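Researcher: If only I could read backbone structure tokens as easily as an amino acid sequence. Walk me, if you will, through where the backbone shape changes along the chain. I have put the entry right below:
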Amino acid sequence: MNSKQKTTYALAAVLAMTLGGMSMGVSAAPAMEKCYGISKAQHNDCATATNSCAGTTTMDRDPHAFIAVPAGVCQKIAGGSLVKP
């Protein structure tokens, strides 16, 4: 086997390992849930009772505004609620 063939096989092996690792990472996305009352002003994920689109809240910790967090995290945040007021 000459050096050109060795290089080709080495590149093929690296490519196969890279593609294999990428496909495993895509399917491991965590479940998300809405967490009310924890967003900073203008950092909410969706419309609230007082505004019509994401990113337009005017106060920190608006109880009507939510952000999406990984499942199980909201209960660990002070002031976080899974229930819309």
